[in-house]
Amino acid sequence: MDTKHLRIAFVYDSKADQIARGCTEEEASAYSSTVFIESVTQSLQRLGHEVIDVGHVRNLARRLVQGEGDHWDMVFTISEGVFGNAKEVQVPALLDAYQIPYTFSDAACLAVAADKAKTKMILQHHNIPTLPFFLIPHREAASPENLQKWLSKSGLEVFKEKPLFIKPTCEGGSNGINHKNKLTSFGDLVQKVTDMRIRFPRQDLMVETFADGREFTVAIIGNGNQAKVLGVLEFLRLPSKADSEEDNIDFATYKVKSVATAVWFQIVNVTHEDSDEVREAARIGLETFQVLDCRDLGRIDIRSVGRGVGARPQVLEINSIPGLRPDNSHVPILAEQEGWTYDELIAMLVSQTMERSDRKRVSN
């Protein structure tokens, strides 16, 4: 099919709309900014495509029922969905039902990638390095007695010598992460679980060993055996510059990522660094992308245990629909440093979507 002049429906969740509906800034952190939405729209138009602005999943459902999807060549989706622990699958599942091709991974992949614990279970099965962890089920009482039981069974009862780290299993954008998520005592665990249960009552909580080494994110492009590493970024902690609770911590919180990352971290392209550690991070990033059957483009967050010669990179989580804001999202910035223009990145997503499309359209 000619991919030069397509009718492309654009599906997204506006951060501004979610805040207008009552979400806090942090609750809406995974949704798309106006700059992000406009950047994708304008790039598609520069590439010669007609862009049909759809918006969120409920708009998509209504327009599909009305038969508008019969006139679309494909859907460019960056949607996070609107409710539930696997909300990212809502748009892909609808589009699969109507056999309309779309960007990024399918519903099966996104359902797994949306849950950090299930992702780690699959990685463990495939012997891909990831930090040991245990779950605090949301349906069970988080009493000190139960917490001690789960902790003892996990073998992670180490605290001060080896701190632990707690996070919700199904959030993005560092939602739920602040300076108290690193745990150095049982009391820290009890208090943080109590706080997070209020904030995330329908989610399991995951507790894992805290990795103290270098932190990377690995961008992957392509599909299946043709997927390849686009590049590797490293996050370097800067000396304290602000009077904040974030000043003396060694991990990125929601505040750090959403307000002023540059105050606390320097982001460096280490793709071409001649080191076993970076090569290993790239290797396990690519293997993770392929094992989970991700498509088109993804970003894998990795942190090492230890530093220097014995450092061991571990997969933290995967972002199967990475940010594409050209001025501050990691993948576009890395792509530019590796010789890609923003329009070339968007064109690649369109091309790969159409290449795998051999659909038969369904009628209403």
TrEMBL record:
Highest taxon, organism lineage: Eukaryota
GO MF annotations, alphabetized: ATP binding; D-alanine-D-alanine ligase activity; metal ion binding
Residues covered by the ATP-grasp domain: 120-351
Subcellular location: Cytoplasm
Record has Transferase as a keyword: no
GO BP term, example: regulation of cell shape
GO cellular component: cytoplasm
Keyword annotations: ATP-binding, Cell shape, Cell wall biogenesis/degradation, Cytoplasm, Ligase, Nucleotide-binding, Peptidoglycan synthesis
This protein's record includes keyword Repeat: no
Main location: cytoplasm
Pfam short name (any one): Dala_Dala_lig_C
Family label: Belongs to the D-alanine--D-alanine ligase family.
Protein's recorded name: ATP-grasp domain-containing protein
Species for this entry: Orbilia ellipsospora
Upper classification of the organism: Eukaryota, Fungi, Dikarya, Ascomycota, Pezizomycotina
